[in-house]
Amino acid sequence: MCHQGTISSASTAALPQLADIAETAASGDWALDLAGAVAGGLLQDHHGADEEVARQEPTLARLRDLATARLAPGQDSRSNTGPAPTGPDLTAWHREVSAVGSFAPGR
């Protein structure tokens, strides 16, 4: 789905499902990690990336919010109480998604 930053239409089509998994699964960190890799691929200079970013903006915003909630100190993104879930370090993902969120088509 995403190999060394190379993505395809199937990669971006999976973003809404990855957001659903990240939102509902107790171990959704892997879904956020994979979505971050896809989002990072969108930042590479590919033909049509502007249109795809615009099309995926609602999903990217949702993923960004989910990652932010999981990264909040002392917050569990599923219940907003208790300690943060353990899993992969999502700091790099947050940087990728934040960059996509600030990406303006046509730049």
What's the short version?
This protein has 107 residues and is mainly α. It has helices at 9-13, 15-24, 29-43, 49-71, 91-101.
Description:
This protein is an all-alpha fold and 107 residues long. The protein has one domain. The protein has helices at residues 9-13, 15-24, 29-43, 49-71, 91-101. It is globular and about 35 Å long. It starts with 8 loop residues before the first helix and ends in a 6-residue tail after the last helix.
**What overall geometry do the principal axes of the alpha carbons give?**
globular
Q: Which H/E pattern describes the elements?
A: HHHHH
Q: Low-confidence segments, ≥5 residues, pLDDT <50?
A: 77-85
Helix/strand/pairing category: mainly alpha
**Proportion of helical residues:** 55-70%
Profile the largest sheet: none
- How many structural units, i.e. domains? 1
| Cα end-to-end separation | 26 Å
Number of helices: 5
Strand content: under 5%
Radius of gyration: 13 Å
Oligomer: single chain
Average of pLDDT = 74
What is the count of β-strands? Answer: 0
